[in-house]
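Workshop exercise sheet. Pairs work together: one partner reads the sequence aloud, the other fills in the structure field after running the prediction. Swap roles for the next sheet.
Pair: D.N. / O.F.
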Amino acid sequence: MSRSVAADSPRLYSNGQPWRNARGRNAPRQAVETEFKAEHAVVDLSSQPPIPLIIKCLVRELRIRFYAVKTVKNYRTAWVRFFRWYRGPLDQIDQEDIREYLELLVNGGASASEVSVTLSALRTGLDKFCLLRCTVGLVSPRKSKRLPVVLSKKEIQRMMEAARTLRDKLLLSVLYATGLRVAEVARLQWSDFDFDRQQIRVQLGKGRKDRYVMLADDLLPLMRQLWRHTKGVGYLFPSEDGRVGRHLSPRTIQRAVKQARILAGIDKHATPHSFRHSFATHLIESGTDIRFIQKLLWHTNLETTSLYTKVAQMKATAVASPLDQLANEPGSSGESPVRQRTSRPSVGRMRLEVDPHPDSNGGYAVRLGVWRDDQLLPLPGMRATMPRRDWVSLQIPLQDIWEPTLRCLPAAQRERLESPEFFSQVQREVAKRILRIRDAEHSQTIKT
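Structure field:
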């Protein structure tokens, strides 16, 4: 016999307690704001405040968000120049005003980097801080891809010999031996050197991150001589004016490199960053694993490190001239080559899969494995993204993640897996598969 319940009567449990929805998706939640309100802006431009007050508030916001000192300086300069040019109401700045100002910079001879920094400053100050949404849809300009200036080993040796002081000679030696940036070298302290483990700790490098680099043995005699003057306290390169707690400025290091270059008679436009380029290029030429170089240089993307493979000199045994290969063709009348050339070792049988479903960030998981005695050994951590149309970027993890698998492989197979040519081949294959996945999705969308 069923019991009838009135429609307007409250729902109860069997014990007489009132019924309520289970928590979870039905739990009460606070409404999410899709857009910021005007009172959340750092500066209220509708009240037309004076320009110096706007600049002061924006710079203060950069500082309390711990932007880099150089970024604060560049953004402030960009804001001052823009507000000198703009004469209309501040709260009515739109995309057309930004485009017109950027076109003025281009016509005035500004480089792509200058325009990109200006656009980033306006996007941060006007959109992010003042909530104007006037740079939405504007894209940073394309930069020209230039090859770095690389010094030969003889040229670096000549510059070290041309250094006029012990400090300048140690400066050039540290730049080349560690591959550090000029600001990172200037901030080195004696406490950062671990002589037992032969490592140098770089504190708060680019991206405000710590890392370790190797300490060369040839630096020790020069450091012992410098120890007599500084007693191993404070900065490795203290300020020239003798002020306590101040290090040498990057500009002073640039002048020291320029002076050594002129005295050595080198015509190349060599800067302190050229020693970093030479450090990476010479390691590649000596056969060092490119992912180990990526770790030393602290590059987030392997493509940044692969730039040095374009300027590295290939060994004569690795690449043969087409004229020398004519004698190896069947039916040729030439004599056999004088020396025997060995082919590159094979990777072996591998398995490559690309997840057809991208993640929330638009990236594709790449599963790679190598067969060893009927067992598939994984090489995890690979990921592919498509930053722009028809361009696939492959992100490869550091060597530490692959080390358990690489230890199980023969030396020849491991050498091939660590070569830059193998990474380029995997990137081409992954790019083909992702483009096929995208084309298939596009055709399916058209059919529906």
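Discussion prompt: Residues 420-447 form the longest helix (28 residues). What would you look at next?
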